[in-house]
Structures are given as structure tokens and as C-alpha cells.
Amino acid sequence: MAESRMFNMQNGITLEAISASVENFMRTDKAMETQNVRTTDGCVIQGSQPKDGWRTISGTRLAINVQLVVVGQNLNVTVGEGEWTDKIGAAALGWFIAWPLALTAGIGAYKQKKMPQEIFAVIEKCILTGGHAAV
């Protein structure tokens, strides 16, 4: 399920500054690889942690999609669901074979679930500082 929020683009903030802040957060704080694709009215940012054996098996790998759409002086931000299959697989494997994997899958699900609020906080901070503060 996607979460959406509308922001007023004040302080001369630009879409480019906001998308750069979001990408910087994904790369530095979440160790994600990112792609930023420009659309006619904004952009879509995709971020995911590299597929490695441990993160995938343990269900702690994060992935997310962020759509930024400019509507006049407002910015509509939609944060889409990330990757849940590894968490479900790790939980099932943990339930039947290796119980610690059920715990790590729960931790991965918690981290995935709180990502939209973290993205919204990064955007809010970027807007409030005019895009000049580090994330």
C-alpha cells in the first residue's frame, strides 16, 4: 500500500533539490543504489539495497519507490511499497527451519514500514531549509 503526502514548495525550493535530498538519504543513510527518472510533471526515484546473500536470506533488504509530482506550488509525494517477498520468505523459513530468521524478517519488515515516514521527514527538512541543509 502506498502512502501519499502533499507539501507546499516554499522558500524557492525546486524539485531537483528535493529529489537530490531524497537520493542522498537513500544512498548515505540506507546504503541503497538509486535511479532517478524524470517524468513530465516530476520524477520517480527507485532505491534498493544491493542483493547479497545475507540481506536477502535474513529478510532485511530494503527497497522503495518515491514519486514526486509538482502541482502548481505543491508537491505530491507518493511512497510505494518496497520489496516484501524476502521478508515473507525469511519468516516462513524461520518459522519452520531456523527461528532466528523469523526475528530478522520482523526487523526487516519494521525498517521497511517506517521508510515512508523517513522520506517525508527528509522532504520536509529540505523544504524548510530551502534545500541548503545536509540530510
Secondary structure elements and pairings:
Elements lengths: L2 E6 L6 H16 L2 E7 L2 E7 L4 H6 L4 E9 L2 E7 L4 H12 L2 H30 L7
Antiparallel strand pairs: 1-5, 2-3, 3-4, 4-5
Question: Could you name the key traits of this structure?
Answer:
about 25% strand, alpha+beta, five-stranded antiparallel beta sheet, about 140 residues
Q: What is the rounded distance between the termini? A: 26 Å
Strand content: 25-35%
Classification by helices and strands: alpha+beta
Give the overall form. Answer: globular
How many H/I helices? 4
Q: Please give the number of β-strands.
A: 5
Output the radius of gyration: 16 Å
Helix content: 40-55%
**Which blocks of ≥5 consecutive residues have pLDDT under 50?**
54-58, 84-95
The average pLDDT is 78
User: What string gives the helices and strands in order?
Assistant: EHEEHEEHH
User: What profile does the largest beta sheet have?
Assistant: 5 strands, antiparallel
Going across the biggest sheet, name each strand in turn.
1-5-4-3-2
Provide structural commentary.
The protein has helices at residues 15-30, 53-58, 85-96, 99-128; strands at 3-8, 33-39, 42-48, 63-71, 74-80. Helices cover 47% and strands 27% of the residues. The radius of gyration is 16 Å and the shape is globular. It contains four helices and five strands; from the N terminus they run βαββαββαα. It is of the alpha+beta class. The model is unreliable at 54-58 and 84-95 (pLDDT under 50). The longest helix has 30 residues, at 99-128.
